[in-house]
């Protein structure tokens, strides 16, 4: 009688110690584009909303809504907010708001620069400058046409401005921002 109880106790302990199954997806298209900016293979995780809320890095903080994504530089992977994953993946889907698609691309490129092995990878200001400067390239690589890329740029610039205003450590005073073009024909 003791042996089955001991085995049951051991199995219970192993199951309790096992990590829960992850609900995140790893979209190949986002990993392909992130790898271009990271200059190496990039793992991009798109968690479910429940997983995002329960994330030990951002989900339990005093303001979990502030995080748009993060890069685990030890584990070498990117995690994007679920809405931003959806936006970046459906960049040409007119049923999704422009802000969601633009911010998805901006954050994807931003986090990819954290993975890149360069001297500025730990500087939010340098990484954010690279992200906004290469936003158009990222949007086009995800399938946006040039006119759509220009439309999205206005929203990316607004998201960038919000970020650098609320979090000054993201601001690089020497960063040259891309210019949005008026969408008018001659």
Topology record:
Blueprint: H1 2-17, H2 28-38, E1 43-45, H3 49-53, E2 69-72, E3 77-80, H4 82-89, H5 98-115, H6 124-133, H7 135-141, H8 146-166
Parallel strand pairs: 1-3
Antiparallel strand pairs: 2-3
Helix pairs in contact: 2-5, 4-5, 5-6, 5-8, 7-8
Word description of this protein:
It is a single chain. The chain is mainly α and 186 residues long. It is built from eight helices and three strands. The chain has helices spanning 2-17, 28-38, 49-53, 82-89, 98-115, 124-133, 135-141, 146-166; strands at 43-45, 69-72, 77-80. A hairpin with a 4-residue loop joins strand 2 (69-72) and strand 3 (77-80). The termini are far apart. Residues 5-21 have low confidence and may be disordered.
- Give the total of beta strands: 3
Distance between the termini: 88 Å
Global geometry: globular
The chain-level mean pLDDT equals: 87
Q: What spatial order of strands do you see in the largest sheet?
A: 1-3-2
Number of domains: 1
Rg to the nearest angstrom?
Answer: 20 Å
Report the helical percentage: 40-55%
């Amino acid at each position: 009688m003791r042996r089955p109880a001991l085995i049951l106790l051991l199995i219970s302990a192993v199951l309790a110690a096992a990590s829960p199954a992850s609900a995140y997806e790893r979209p190949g298209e986002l990993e392909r584009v992130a790898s271009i900016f990271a200059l190496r293979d990039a793992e991009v995780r798109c968690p479910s909303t429940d997983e995002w809320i329960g994330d030990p890095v951002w989900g339990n903080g005093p303001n979990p809504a502030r995080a748009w994504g993060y890069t685990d530089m030890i584990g070498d992977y990117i995690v994007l907010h679920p809405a931003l994953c959806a936006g970046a993946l459906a960049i040409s889907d007119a049923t999704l708001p422009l802000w969601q698609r633009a911010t998805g691309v901006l954050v994807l490129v931003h986090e990819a620069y954290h993975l890149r092995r360069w001297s500025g990878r730990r500087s939010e200001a340098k990484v954010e400058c690279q992200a906004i400067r290469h936003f158009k390239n990222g949007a086009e690589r995800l399938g946006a046409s040039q006119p759509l890329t220009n439309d999205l740029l206005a929203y990316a610039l607004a998201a960038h401005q919000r970020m650098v205003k609320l979090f000054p450590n993201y601001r690089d005073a020497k960063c040259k921002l891309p210019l949005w073009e008026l969408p008018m024909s001659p």
